[in-house]
UniProtKB/TrEMBL annotation:
Matches recorded under SUPFAM superfamilies: CoA-transferase family III (CaiB/BaiF)
Keyword Chloroplast carried by entry: no
One Pfam family it belongs to: CoA_transf_3
Lineage, highest ranks first: Bacteria, Pseudomonadati, Pseudomonadota, Betaproteobacteria, Burkholderiales
Molecular function in Gene Ontology: transferase activity
Entry protein name: Formyl-CoA transferase
InterPro entries noted in UniProt: CoA-transferase_III (IPR050509), CoA-Trfase_fam_III (IPR003673), CoA-Trfase_III_dom3_sf (IPR044855), CoA-Trfase_III_dom_1_sf (IPR023606)
Length: 411
């Protein structure tokens, strides 16, 4: 079994060109959406300087389970970044931010609309300093519209985007996906926007632009046929538990030791699935040859599959269906992922050493690029760890930095 790649904080992995090498990013966001976009750009070579508030820094440092006083989530979200602790409420702090942004290619922020403007850092003002600057703005409802000033977190975006209504068993309370999917979807859409803007700037002349991503819009963009079905038929899609409404069979089925997902919704796949579970009668039934007929009898089909999976172990079900070329899979836990040979074979589990010397298993890098792969070049920084180095690179002298520290502008 291939071992997880060992990535020390001061040693880069084997050298290879990186797609975003030379791209300078200033990240002013916190928690999830903005920083996830920064992480993604950093994984592919961008030089990311994260500006954090004095004192405690990004609240994500204290979210969920802590090790050595810091969240292990932070170790994932902030790899390949430098930390500058700066008080943006003070004019001197705003001046330093301008100096950093003036030399940047990309600015990322996910504050409530108007926050940058209140600091004298409106995009128009920043573009006057740096015409090629690309500004990624992620917020709950976007920079315009009647809801722009309302507070919005990912869970609210998931609700407004239409997702939360569907994540439930029929008649039961809507549940969250289990991770901050709204924030992550917004971050990924924002990252796509940054890459598009970088390409446009290079191909069509140096103008920058503003990318406006709303949390609910990123979720809504992934809602498939939700609105066309309402438009054409007045159909309001309702919760369906683990089933895939209008497509059958595709569901979770009980086994002796857990649950298995089975997707037998292709016409030929369905026939192979029914043969594998000993229901040749259903395989040969002309009413079930197409999806529409199967949807009409979905409960009957699900019951037949569940009757076959119920007395079996998950591993046995997955093995037999794989032999029949039917898509099926175990519902993985964290332990399953950590012990899975396929994850390791594809470098999706990396051993990363924190600044405190602890080794942690981390998610690998997605997507996989053959010529310019991503890599972890540095582990997540301590608060303000890179303040002096970044400010010195921006042209401040040691004396100026010391004075700013004495005034409580930097940490």
């Amino acid at each position: 079994m291939p071992m997880a790649q060992d990535l020390r904080p001061d040693v880069s992995s084997p050298s290879a060109p990186q797609a975003l090498a030379g791209v300078r990013v200033v990240e002013m966001g916190q928690l999830i959406a903005g920083p996830f976009a920064g992480k993604t750009l950093g994984d592919f070579g961008a030089d990311v300087v994260k500006i954090e508030a004095l004192g405690t820094g990004d609240p994500l440092r204290q979210w969920r389970l802590l090790q050595d006083g810091t969240s292990v989530w932070w170790q994932v979200q902030s790899r390949n970044k430098q930390s500058v602790a700066l008080d943006l409420r003070q004019p001197e702090g705003q001046d330093i931010a301008r100096r950093l942004i003036a030399e940047a290619d990309v600015l990322i922020e996910n504050f409530r609309p108007g926050t940058l403007e209140g600091w004298g850092l409106a995009p128009e003002q920043l573009h006057a300093l740096n015409p090629g600057l690309i500004v990624l703005r992620i917020s709950g409802y976007g920079q315009t519209g009647p809801y722009r000033d309302l507070p919005g977190f990912g869970v609210v975006g998931e609700a407004m985007g239409g997702l939360r209504h569907l994540t439930a068993e029929p008649g039961r309370v809507p549940v969250r996906v289990g991770v901050s999917i709204g924030d992550t979807l917004a971050a990924l859409h924002g990252t796509i926007g940054v890459l598009l803007a970088l390409y446009h700037r290079k191909a069509h002349g140096g103008a920058g632009q503003v990318i406006d991503v709303a949390l609910h819009e990123a979720v809504f963009n992934c809602m498939e046929s939700l609105i066309p079905e309402y438009s054409a038929f007045g159909a309001v899609r309702e919760p369906a538990g683990s089933a895939l409404p209008g497509i059958a069979p595709s569901n979770a089925y009980p086994c002796q030791d857990g649950w298995v997902l089975v997707a037998g919704n292709g016409d030929s796949i369905f026939k192979r699935l029914m043969a594998a579970i000993g229901r040749q009668d259903l395989a040969d039934d002309p009413q079930l040859a197409g999806n529409a007929g199967r949807v009409a009898r979905a409960e009957e089909i699900d019951a037949a599959i569940a009757a076959w999976t119920g007395p079996r172990q998950v591993a046995d079900v997955v093995q037999q269906l794989a032999a029949a070329r039917v898509p099926a899979g175990k519902v993985y836990t964290a332990r399953d992922i950590a012990e899975d040979p396929h994850y390791r074979a594809r470098d999706m589990l990396l051993t990363q050493t924190t600044r405190e010397g602890r080794e942690l298993l981390m998610p690998g890098i997605v997507p996989k690029l053959s010529g310019t792969p991503g890599r972890v070049r540095a582990s997540a920084p301590r608060l303000g760890e890179d303040t002096d180095a970044v400010l010195a690179e921006a042209g401040l002298t040691p004396g100026q930095i010391a004075l700013l520290r004495a005034k409580g502008v930097v940490q």
